[in-house]
Amino acid sequence: MLDFWQSLQKPIIALAPMEDVTDTVFREVIRSVSEPDALHVMFTEFTSTDGLCNKKGREFVATRLVVNETERELLKASNTKLVAQIWGSDPEKFHESAKLISGMRLFDGIDINMGCPVKKVVKNHSCSDLINHPDVAKEIIIATREGTNLPVSVKTRIGFSSIVTEEWIGELLEVHPAAITIHGRTRAMMSNGLALWDEIGKAVQLRDQSNSSTLILGNGDVDSHATALARVRDFGVDGVMVGTGIFKTPWMFNTAEKEISMQMRIDLLVKHITLYDHTWKDKGNFNVLKRFFKIYLNGFEGAAHWRDQLMHCKNCGEALEVIKRI
Question: CA 93, CA 109: separation in Å to the nearest integer?
Fold first, then answer.
C-alpha cells in the first residue's frame, strides 16, 4: 500500500471535501494561489458508492471525480495529494468503489465520509449515522482497503447525539485507517457552536496510548493559516483540515498574510468563472457559482452592489460582462 500520509511533512494542512464546493475548478483556483508547503492535501466532493456501483448512476456521480488536466499539473508541481471521498452504507459497494477509483489512477488516497450530518444521508444509515454502528463502520474500512492499494482514511465527528469521542475513535483505531480527521462537533450540533477541540485532543491522547500509526487531523473553526498552526501546537494533532474557513479568503493557504487588492480579487473571480465554464459547459449549473461571489467581492467600496448584480446573472457569459464594468 502506497501510504502518502506517512511521508507528508507535518503539520499537515488540508482542504476539506465540501458538497458543491470542492470540484476540480475550485481546487485548481485554490491551489493556484497557495504556497506549495502550506497546502498538502485536497479532497473531492462526496461521491456516493451506491451511484458508483450503478451503471446508470455512475455517469452522474462520476462528475464529482473529474480532475482537470490543468489541476493535475498544479498538483504534480506542488506535490499536493488528492483524495477521493466516498460515502454509503454497504461494505461491498465500498469495496467495488475502491476498485473503480484505483483504476482511474487520478487519486492518492480514498477517504470515507463518516461525518456528514445531512438528514437524508443519515436516514440511509450513512455518514455520521455510522457512529451509531461501529461494527459496520469497521467493516466498511476493511472492505475499502481490500479493494485498493491506496491508503484509506476517515473523516468523522466526536459523536452522533452526544459526545463519545474516546469510545468511537477507539473503535476506528482498531482497524488502522491511515488517518482520521475529526470535526469537533457531534451530528446533533451540526455546524452550531464552537468546535470542541479539547475532544479532538483526547483522540490524539488515545492514539498515542495505543501506539497506533494512524494520523489524527482536527477540523472546525479554522479560518487562517496561523489558526491552523495554533491548533496543532495546542492540541497535538498531526494536521488540520480547513472547511468553511476557506470562504473567508481563498489566499489562506499561505504562511504569511498579505494584502489582497481589489484587482487580485476580481482577477481570481474571472479565472474561477472562466475555468468553470470551460470545464463543465452544458453540464454546469451557474447557480452553484453564486455561493462563491462573496469570497472574491468583499473588502472594497461597492462590493455589495456588484455581488447583487452578479446574483441576477443567468450564465457565465453574463457574469463576465458584469465584471468588466467593476
Answer: 17
Location of C-alpha cell 451506491: 50
Cβ(161)–Cβ(186) below 8 Å? yes
C-alpha to C-alpha distance for 251 and 216, rounded to whole angstroms: 25
Cα separation, 150 vs 111, whole angstroms: 10
- In the chain, % helix, strand, coil (3-state, to 5) comes to 50, 15, 35
- CA dist 219 and 161 (Å) reads 19
Cell of 44: 473531492
Residue type, 325: R
Which pLDDT does position 258 carry in this prediction? 82
Q: Which phi and psi angles does 45 have, rounded to 5°?
A: -65, 165
Residue corresponding to grid cell 498538502: 40
pLDDT range class, residue 173, cuts 50, 70, 90: very high
Ramachandran bin of 210, using left for φ above 0, alpha for ψ from -120 to 50, beta for the remaining angles: alpha
Each residue's pLDDT tens digit, 189-221: 999 999 999 999 999 999 999 999 999 999 999
- 102-125 tens-digit pLDDT: 999 999 999 999 999 999 999 999
Under the banding of pLDDT at 50, 70 and 90, the label for residue 281 is confident
Cell readout for 33 is 494561489
Q: How confident is the model at residue 65 (pLDDT cuts 50, 70, 90)?
A: very high
Contact 63, 105 (CB under 8 A): no
> How far, in Å, CA of 146 to CA of 275, rounded?
36
Catalytic residue IDs:
116
